[in-house]
Design a protein that fits this description.
Layout lengths: L4 E5 L3 H13 L3 E5 L2 H10 L4 E5 L7 H10 L6 E5 L4 H9 L4 E4 L4 H24 L1 H4 L12 H13 L6 E4 L6 H10 L8 E5 L5 H9 E2 L11 E2 L1 H4 L4 E5 L6 H13 L1 E2 L8 E2 L3 E6 L3 H7 L4 H7 L2 E4 L10 H15 L7 E2 L1 H9 L5 H15 L4 E2 L24 H19 L4 H8 L3 H10 L4
Parallel strand pairs: 1-2, 1-3, 3-4, 4-5, 6-13, 6-14, 7-10, 10-13, 15-16
Antiparallel strand pairs: 8-9, 11-12
Helix pairs in contact: 2-3, 14-16, 17-18, 18-19
Length: 453
């Protein structure tokens, strides 16, 4: 069994020595650090299973260490140690990501019990990861990145539908990775050895799109000098991905519906049809139900395409995936632009990236990272390398007009911050409270006070 590795952070040498001796007797491999800066340096080169950290320390206190550790992607349970009955600060640390806290002076058994509880939690998490390894932890999802529950649900849904011929509709904002999801559906299923053919329905005019999809015979129109198979025939046995299917003209929607219903395709100029075995996956950033209501999209085709729906969450709804995405994008972008080594991302830069709304989603994040790498000369990707538009916290402006009341301005500011936090977290009050750095109870009180229920 692996010996758990623990990092003890305290400015008191005697306490560090006492804890390290005690925990080594309990079967832990213990390292020590005299302050937050030293601890962060050790974390940059080693992955610890557990961290014990004092709150009151000179220079960098425990709370600031916690913030920087969490923002840099440290996932080990962090137990805070506090004296003088400073429970409020310890609770605030838990709201910011600490696993638990323990008050000084403490008995040996108290430390051991807290760590055993943390071990049990980690064991359960590992069991859960193992159970979901098929959907969350393997390369079979080909480029899909994220451990947020909404993404884990997507992986699970992909696996359920991968081996079926069921048509799949992928909905999501621009830049969320809809084509990556379509490729994952194809490559994790029984059709993976057959072709994956993609076409953007909004990138071609109607006449060209028809020829691309269905093909044509020699002499079917001016310039048709030979027979040409369409994308349906090219994808035979595999998957045809119709990106931006909401842009397809109505006349072509009728022909697409016929192919889906009959499993046959007829080239332009041909007199006979041929059977095709194609799994159709389509994607759109539009609200197809609204398009149907407005008459711009056929209702019968909508029902044919929307047999199995995959709704891709926007990046702002899975902020906890940003550290992982940033690490991978920094590595990939650095290789793409010819940098020998990928720089490390400074905590403040990562904090700013996590605070931004990302209207362009993962595609925008990738563009920002690549530009930052061009501007960044050293081995650290610093905050100043980021785009000016990545302003960290959402810009909130207070325009009092003739009313110069500070109390009223503070009230307006609180209302706006609460609204933005709830918007970012999809209405999850627990997560919103953590983002606002207040207790869940305080948030509930303010929601009632400001009539934001």
């Amino acid at each position: 069994m692996k010996q758990p590795h623990i990092l003890i952070i305290d400015d008191e040498e005697n306490l560090r020595h006492m804890l390290s001796v005690m925990l080594r007797k309990q079967g832990y491999h213990a390292d020590t650090a005299a302050g937050g800066e030293e601890a962060l340096a050790k974390l940059s080169g080693h992955a610890y299973d557990y961290i014990l950290c004092d709150i009151r320390m000179p220079e960098m206190d425990g709370r600031e260490f916690l913030r920087q550790a969490v923002s840099s992607g440290v996932t080990a349970p962090i137990v805070m140690m506090t004296a003088y009955g400073a429970v409020d600060t310890a609770v605030a640390c838990m709201q910011e990501g600490a696993y638990d806290f323990i008050s000084k002076p403490f008995k040996r058994d108290e430390i051991v019990i807290v760590l055993k509880k943390a071990e049990e939690r980690e064991r359960l998490k590992e069991e859960n990861r193992t159970l979901r390894a098929e959907v969350a932890g393997k390369s079979s999802f080909y480029g899909l990145v994220g451990r947020n529950p909404s993404m884990l649900a997507i992986y699970d849904q992909i696996q359920r539908v991968a081996d079926l011929k069921t048509t799949v509709l992928i909905q999501g904002e621009s830049g969320t990775g809809k084509e990556l999801v379509a490729r994952a559906v194809h490559k994790s299923g029984c059709r993976s050895a057959k072709p994956f053919v993609a076409v953007n329905c909004g990138a071609l005019p109607e006449t060209l799109l028809e020829g691309e999809l269905f093909g044509h015979t020699k002499g079917a129109f001016t310039g048709a000098s030979s027979d040409k198979p369409g994308l349906f025939e090219q994808a035979d046995g595999g998957t045809l991905f119709l990106d931006e299917v909401g842009e397809m003209p109505l006349a072509l929607q009728v022909k697409l519906l016929r192919v889906l219903q009959e499993g046959e395709v007829r080239r332009i100029g041909a007199t006979t049809s041929s059977l095709v075995d194609v799994r159709v996956v389509s994607a759109t950033a539009r609200d197809l139900q609204a398009e149907v209501a407005s008459g711009r999209f056929r209702e019968d085709l909508y029902f044919r395409l929307n047999v199995f729906l995959l709704q891709i969450p926007p990046l702002r709804e899975r902020i906890d995936d940003i550290p992982l995405l940033v690490r991978l994008l920094v590595r990939d972008c650095a290789a793409r632009i010819g940098r020998e080594t990928a720089p490390k991302v400074e905590p403040e830069a990562l904090r700013r990236l996590m605070a931004y709304q990302w209207p362009g989603n993962v595609r925008e994040l990738e563009n920002v990272i690549e530009r930052a790498l061009v501007l960044c000369d050293g081995d650290q990707l610093a905050e100043h390398c980021l785009l000016d538009g990545i302003a960290g916290e959402s810009e909130i402006k207070v325009c009092p007009g003739e009313n110069l009341s500070i109390k009223q301005a503070e009230r307006n500011m609180e209302i706006e911050l609460i609204r933005k936090a709830l918007e970012r977290t999809g209405g999850n009050r627990t997560h919103a409270a953590k983002m606002l750095e207040i207790s869940h109870r305080a948030l509930l009180y303010k929601l009632k006070e400001y009539a934001l229920e």
